[in-house]
Design a protein that fits this description.
By secondary structure, the protein is mostly helical. The protein has a domain at 22-62. The chain is built from three helices and no strands.
């Protein structure tokens, strides 16, 4: 009762042909193949993301604490300068809009 013999496989194939027809079987096989390919692609993408994260973690742990703090300080000052220039731009555009309304 263990494995199936050749006769059992022939009967299974005949039943599948009767159920789905000769035209549907290639379409089903093609769809199954595409699904398997998408699964493998997603699996490889996830593996690459994990490897990338591990590499970044190794690089981050190799930096000393003072270097990391200095980079954070530089980023904070860049963000401050950026937000200050945006504020100045918004104020000047509001002033020009107010001047146009006064002229009308």
């Amino acid at each position: 009762m263990g494995s199936m013999g050749g006769f059992e496989w022939v009967i299974i194939i005949l039943v599948v042909l009767l159920l789905f027809g000769a035209k549907k079987i290639p379409e089903l096989a093609r769809g199954l193949g595409q699904g398997i390919n998408e699964f493998r692609k997603a699996q490889n993408d996830i593996k690459q993301e994990i490897d990338k994260g591990a590499e970044e973690a190794e690089k981050g742990s190799s930096k000393s604490g003072s270097e990391s703090q200095q980079e954070q300080s530089n980023n904070d000052s860049k963000n401050y300068v950026s937000s200050e220039s945006e504020t100045n731009t918004n104020i000047s555009s509001q002033n020009s809009t107010a001047e146009k309304k006064k002229a009308e």
